[in-house]
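Hi there, hope your week has been kind to you so far. Thanks so much in advance, here it is.
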Amino acid sequence: MKQKKTVRAVALGLAVLLGLGALVGALLPLIY
């Protein structure tokens, strides 16, 4: 059960990182 929670947390972290990366990638051309 503890391992499943960890996997979920890691997946969530990856999803957040991907979302932030996509956001930055979309905003950079607008800023520069």
Notes: The chain has one domain: 1-32. Residues 24 and 30 are 10 Å apart (CA to CA). Helices lie at 2-31.
